[in-house]
């Protein structure tokens, strides 16, 4: 039986700079709570204005991924509906 993890990666506004995978959870809601509550200041006082949660199956080169995007607004990460254009050609932020 395959298992899924949810990686949390913080990103700067420059797509050429590497993101930082700050952790993972085994449940999506736990990962969302960590992001929206800015656990342990993953935003690093404004240094990472974007955050993505990716669902990743166990194994090598997990190809079925889903992304959940967040942007820092109003002193918290808020879910946004689509991937920011600057990251449109990138994938596999947390593991990959």
Question: Please, could you describe this protein's structure?
Answer:
This protein has 1 helix and 5 strands, in the order ββαβββ. The chain has 96 residues and is mainly beta. The protein has one domain. Strands 2-1-3-4-5 form a 5-stranded antiparallel β-sheet, covered by helices on one side. A hairpin with an 8-residue loop joins β1 and β2 (20-25). It is globular. The protein starts with a strand and ends in a 16-residue tail after the last strand. The model has no long low-confidence stretch (mean pLDDT 92).
SSE arrangement:
Blueprint (H helix, E strand, L loop, with lengths): L3 E8 L8 E6 L2 H9 L13 E8 L8 E8 L2 E5 L16
Antiparallel strand pairs: 1-2, 1-3, 3-4, 4-5
Question: Brief overview, please?
Answer:
The chain has one domain (4-87). Helices cover 9% and strands 36% of the residues.
Helix content: under 10%
Spans of at least 5 consecutive residues with low confidence: none
For the record, give the distance between the C-alpha atoms at the N and C termini, rounded to a whole number.
21 Å
SSE ordering: EEHEEE
- Average of per-residue pLDDT values: 92
| Structural class estimated from helices and strands | mainly beta
| Number of helical stretches of at least 4 residues | 1
Q: Provide the number of structural domains.
A: 1
Please count the beta strands (DSSP E, at least 2 residues each): 5
Radius of gyration: 13 Å
Keywords, separated by commas or semicolons:
mainly beta, 5-stranded antiparallel beta sheet, 9% helix
